[in-house]
# Entry
Amino acid sequence: MSKCTLLSKGLVLTLLILPFLGQAQTKPSKIDQKLKELGLVLPATSAPIANYVNAVQTGKLIFLAGKGPKREDGTYITGKVGSDLTLEQGYEAAQLTALHQLAALKAQIGNLDRVKRIVKVLGMVNCGPDFGDQPKVINGFSDLMVKVFGEKGKHARSAVGVGSLPSKMAVEVEMIVEIE
# Structure
């Protein structure tokens, strides 16, 4: 066969395959399917509000910077849980924060199916000195991780009360994740 014949056969093959390359369907991840089943949508990731990054990977661990309950309009759920917000509103703020952490994690690792384990969570609750239900508030975050990841979502955790948080957020949560 001459080079011209090989070239023309290659060109024909390329022209036959080319239309199908853009049509390749990627199968949704198991976690993406789980989120859809739960009626949850990950928000867009946002740039950090100061001089830090959203996530740092070292080995198989991902350390996620603190995130808060940012609404779609860019504002945060603010106030002190126990005085400005009810315990239930604090729980919901922690759930919204969990979605933001999952979005940041997905942006870092590409596919949430790579999560081997949610390792550690630090939950901070903006509250007064007499409020003692910080664990119940941060359960909003933890419960969502377990709904999404099952046993892999169970983690070690600290839930603390603080006098204030950036932008007067109601909650802020940091997370450490092991990936495969």
